[in-house]
């Protein structure tokens, strides 16, 4: 039986990060991963000679995440950059609103729709940036502060009161109350919030509005494909003597005297440790790996709570295309920067139309709206491989998908 200080179930980026920090601190750590490769949802596959980021594409916090420097990820092959403009919101009358990480440049684009909104946006962007930098980002990357300190932050400090006020409103209310004249600007800002699956009509998530607006305008692309991020974390984990066992599926978490002491895999191998960390969802962790009998001993109400847990109310539909030419946008005649934008949003006729289409998506319909990104436009490493690029056309792999 193999003994470790910590066993981590799941080799996605969360498991890798936990393992890398523990291993760097001197702990003996093993990561158990069911798939043949670590990385979880941050995957880059190759199809028709092109690298395709099958899930995670936009990295909102690369320049804020302590792990990048703590784990020396740049030395292990991970680098990133932020294409600008961050977003081009295309309208049905062939115009476009471009938003940048530079509020002055954004204001110039907004001024083509409303001069009043240009100045107002800069003011609100600065307010949101302060909320993100002073409250939200620190809470993301440090231990939760003491309850009394949190009460003081939210009830005594003005910035905390503002965050609490936003949290009690819906995203639609927050953006509507900004007082913008341009329906296009309101729709673009609401899209930055709802594109992650946040329902624009629910309360309790208002603090995410400034986070998504500010950080999406500063979002990054990983050079060479998204998978280079978990790959770099994996390398620093291994460099600190961490152990990874892939293609190894967990059967159960071993409980003795009410305490988790180890893990048994479906192949019969057992591992023991002082600490068990699971990065898979709560239902698998508790109902499948621990089991209701063990949970009932700890708390009879706990199994029912876990059974009530659910994923988001809607799923994202993603289509990957390998094309033989770059997309062309009619709105580029209005603003040439449209073609250079990291993200192009289309199919939305305004603020209310976005809210209506979100409701349609929740009900199971597939409204014609969304956004696209041409990764190879910004990162030549993700262009077709040498084989696909230089074979004669009649011998080349499939060059486009309908």
Q: Which strand order do you get reading across the main beta sheet?
A: 9-2-1-12-11-10
**What radius of gyration results from the CA coordinates?**
24 Å
Helices and strands, in order, run as: EHEEEHEEEHHHHHHHEHEEEEHHHEHEHH
Helix proportion range: 25-40%
- Structural class call reads alpha/beta
Main sheet? 6 strands, mixed
Number-wise, the strands total: 14
Count of DSSP-assigned helices: 16
Morphology call: globular
The fraction of residues in strands falls at 15-25%
What is the count of distinct domains? Answer: 2
Query: What gap, in angstroms, lies between the N and C termini?
Result: 53 Å
- Low-confidence spans: pLDDT under 50, at least 5 residues? 387-402
Mean pLDDT: 90
Q: Explain this structure to me?
A:
The protein is of the alpha/beta class. It has two domains: 2-80 and 223-307, FAD/NAD(P)-binding domain (3-Layer(bba) Sandwich); 81-222 and 327-373, no CATH class. The chain is built from 16 helices and 14 strands. It has helices spanning 13-24, 67-70, 103-110, 115-140, 147-155, 158-167, 171-176, 183-194, 208-216, 228-239, 282-290, 292-298, 302-307, 351-362, 375-378, 386-390, and strands at 2-9, 29-32, 44-47, 50-53, 80-81, 87-90, 96-99, 221-222, 243-245, 250-256, 259-265, 270-278, 343-346, 370-372. The strands form four sheets. It has a six-stranded mixed sheet with strand order 9-2-1-12-11-10, sandwiched between helices. Strands 7-6-13-14 form a four-stranded mixed sheet. Strands 3-4 form a two-stranded antiparallel ribbon. A hairpin with a 4-residue loop joins β11 (259-265) and β12. α1 (13-24) runs parallel beside α10 and α11 crosses α12 (292-298). It is globular, with a radius of gyration of 24 Å.
């Amino acid at each position: 039986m193999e003994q470790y200080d910590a066993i981590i179930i799941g080799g996605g980026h969360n498991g890798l990060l936990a393992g890398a920090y523990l291993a760097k601190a001197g702990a003996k750590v093993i990561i158990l991963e069911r798939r043949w490769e670590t990385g979880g949802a941050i995957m880059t596959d190759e199809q028709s000679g092109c690298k395709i980021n099958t899930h995670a594409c936009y990295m909102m916090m690369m320049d804020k995440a302590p792990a990048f420097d703590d784990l020396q990820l740049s030395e292990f092959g991970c680098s990133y950059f932020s294409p600008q403009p961050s977003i081009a919101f295309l309208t049905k009358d062939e115009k476009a609103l471009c938003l940048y990480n530079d509020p002055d440049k954004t204001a110039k684009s907004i001024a083509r729709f409303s001069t009043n909104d240009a100045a107002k946006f800069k003011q609100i962007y600065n307010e949101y940036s302060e909320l993100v930098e002073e409250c939200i980002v620190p809470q993301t990357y440090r231990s939760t502060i003491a309850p009394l300190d949190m009460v003081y932050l939210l009830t005594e400090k003005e910035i905390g009161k503002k965050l609490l006020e936003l949290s009690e409103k819906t995203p639609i209310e927050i953006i509507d109350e900004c007082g913008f004249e341009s329906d296009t600007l309101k729709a673009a800002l609401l899209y930055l919030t709802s594109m992650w699956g946040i329902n624009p009509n629910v309360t309790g998530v208002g603090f995410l509005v400034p986070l998504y607006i500010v950080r999406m305008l500063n979002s990054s692309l990983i050079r060479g494909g998204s998978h280079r991020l978990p790959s770099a974390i994996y390398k620093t984990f291994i460099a600190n003597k961490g152990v990874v066992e892939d293609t190894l599926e967990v059967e159960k978490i071993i409980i003795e005297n009410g305490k988790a002491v180890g893990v048994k895999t479906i192949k019969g191998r057992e591992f023991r440790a002082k600490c068990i960390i699971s990065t898979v969802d709560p239902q698998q962790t508790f109902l499948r790996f621990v089991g209701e009998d063990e949970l009932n001993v700890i708390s009879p109400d706990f199994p029912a709570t876990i059974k009530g847990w659910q994923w988001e109310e809607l799923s994202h539909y993603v289509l990957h295309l390998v094309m033989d030419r770059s997309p062309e946008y009619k709105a580029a005649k209005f603003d040439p920067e449209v073609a250079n934008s990291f993200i192009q949003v289309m199919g939305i006729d305004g603020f209310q139309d976005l809210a209506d289409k979100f409701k349609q998506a929740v009900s199971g319909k597939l409204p014609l709206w969304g956004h696209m990104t041409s990764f190879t436009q910004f990162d030549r490493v993700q262009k077709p491989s040498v084989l696909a690029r230089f074979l004669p056309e009649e011998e080349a792999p499939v060059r486009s998908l309908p």
